[in-house]
Amino acid sequence: MLIVGELINSSRSQIKEAIEKRGDVFIKQLARDQFEAGANYVDVNAGTFYGREPEKLEWLVEVVQQEVNCPLCIDSPNPDALRRALEKHQGEALINSVTAEEKRYKEIVPLVKEYGARVIALTIDESGIPDNREKRIKIAEQLVERLVADGVNEDRIYIDPLVEPLSTKDENGLIALETINYIAGKDWEVHTICGLSNISFGLPGRKFINHAFAAMAVASGLDSAILNPLDKHLLGLLKAGVALTNKDPYCKGYLTAYRKGLFK
């Protein structure tokens, strides 16, 4: 299970303020906390800085990688911001994200190839986010086919089925889970990923929804997740889920994480 730490996002008021004031101590500590909690990638997002996103995202990349020796998930639809961030990035980045929208695809994929990055592919096309599993699967298959034709290996592609809040539509949980299950079951090397906490937006007791959805997503074949790695209960649940689905030989990953104190 690949973990992307989601906390350095300018949509969070504390993060936005720290970026604005160049509060590198706070940003570095949050990066280290996520890395030490088990994050394989640390997500960086400066999307709320309209007109200033490129410089802010570049700064985030430099600051975070001064503190932690891990690759970053560079989270932006802005090709200028992505390029500036990728130029500073050390190691193999994960770009978040490309879609089936023609303009965005043509802007982002050349950067994926130029910088040797992995890429998250969202199941969105010119019509927006589909309201059913069948259309999301169709977009996912089209994206994989096109990305591979453009020189991106299957095992570097992470399909995001786009988890939408359960509070806005009763079927949203099942749509995401069924899409994950189909993609994970195909005979290819493509990965699945999603933002787990999106499912609970607008509902009370969000952690209960998040944890239940996480367990169901792993059982459906999810192999990567964007989440809060400081939630030790959630981390333990995911490690256990991977073992229970026969993807952790001899429970080595579970036992190693437990001995490191990554969950309780």
TrEMBL record:
Single GO term (MF): metal ion binding
InterPro entries: Dihydropteroate_synth-like_sf, Met_Synthase/Corrinoid, Pterin-binding_dom
GO (cellular component) term, any one: cytosol
GO biological process: homocysteine metabolic process; methylation; tetrahydrofolate metabolic process
Domain of life: Bacteria
Domain Pterin-binding intervals: 1-264
Nucleotidyltransferase in keyword set: no
Pfam family, one: Pterin_bind
Annotated TM spans: none
Keyword vocabulary terms for this entry: Cobalamin, Cobalt, Metal-binding, Methyltransferase, Transferase
Aminoacyl-tRNA synthetase as UniProt keyword: no
Family the entry assigns: Belongs to the vitamin-B12 dependent methionine synthase family.
Name recorded for this polypeptide: 5-methyltetrahydrofolate--homocysteine methyltransferase
Organism, scientific name: Desulfoscipio geothermicus DSM 3669
